[in-house]
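Lab notebook, bench 4. The sequencing result for the construct came back, and we need a structural model before the next group meeting so we can plan mutations. Quick request posted to the team channel:

Model the 3D structure of this chain.
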Amino acid sequence: MSNRRNFLKSTMGMIGASTLLSSITCDNLKKNKAKKIKNVLFIIVEDLKNIMGCYGHPIVQTPNLDRLARKGVIFDHAYCQYPVCNPSRSSFLTGLRPDTTQILENVTPWTRNVKNHTTLPKMFRNNDFYTVSMGKVFHGKNKGHGDAEAWDEKLNFETTELGKQGEGRNMTNGSVKWCSWLAAEGIDDDQADGQMATKAIKILRQTRNKPFFLTLGFAKPHDPFNAPKKYFDIYPLKELMPPFMPDNRTPIEEFVIGSGWAADLKKLTLQDQREFLRSYYACVTFTDAQIGRVMDELDRQNLWEETAVIFIGDHGYNLGEYGWWNKAVLFEDSARVPMIAVVEGETKANTRCDQFVELVDLYPTFADLFGLKAPSNLEGVSFRPLFSEPNMPWKQAAYTQVQRGDIAGKSVRTKRWRYNEWIRDGEILLTELFDHASDPKEYCNLSGLSEFEDTCQKLSLLLRTKQN
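Done. Here's the predicted structure in token form:
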């Protein structure tokens, strides 16, 4: 068996002839690593679902991310471990799953529960990379939320007063404070994300005696949905429609959504929903333009050949599916994330990968790509082999979770199924089974039907063992 990968055959007939990935060694790949690759550009976008043109959306304009996708590998089945900012970032920046970090909300800093652990950026700084954090990388600005020892430079930006002016509205008449949009006056650099792109360009132009690990944390399309007016003008309201929801969809328990905002968001009128879509789309296109500016500088400086570029969303987002306009649920649109990799000499241009990868896999992948020593307790697996062979057998599942007070929601996604369990004090309160072959929007819960009992049992075992 090749030392490039070592697979265990699955004994679980429900998945068919699936392959369980038990261990991967990449010694040969490391020996053949493209010699020119020495830098990292790591782009993290907040609250971005798979809504770009390269993911097949017919309306949203993202020419620069589409261009990035054509240069490398676009991942069609990438998943976050927790669809909320702090738990997700605490997970992929430490390489540990939320059950290990015990970060299950936006308040607690990851450092409270994870001690003496080398984070992803600190690994690069320890190996003599010049590390720069721009915008939102770790969650929160308070003590303990970040990793001060990980960065040579840490830069934040503020929207100008002009960028805070313009036409806008709260779509819930003020009952949900974050649910607002602003078609802002000024130019891109009057917004914090525009300033960040400008500063990133300056950094890329600098003469360096060290390789760089540059992380750009774009805030939009996170609420409030503020962007320069010209991006709103791209999307006429009358052309926008919320998703169709079938009348025969399975009713859901209150804790499946779980937020106190649910009642207010259900009251959104068609006009409100169209404005929500327009403002989210405008913010996505604005962010795409900033990423395009940085890509143009990579072109001018001929940096592509020596820079590994990884782009992700920190988690997904629901735009009206199930009447929900936010994140933090176990539905596909919240759990699935966009991911693109461009690594000269490793990735093939204009390719798609249909295999499962998880954000928790990013840390070991970076370590593998640069031959760096990572902590031994990382809980993901390097997906570097998928750069050159995107269709090779890989993980059979991805895992996502949420917390509702004392109720834990745990989800496993396979190629055909999503299976969820809602648990309190060891007791399963609810199970959900969705068939992506016939129900990709997850509207029909099949878990109560006798013909799917065996499927649920096998997926329940997979959920507990977290076998890859």
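The mean pLDDT is 92.
Will bring this to the meeting.
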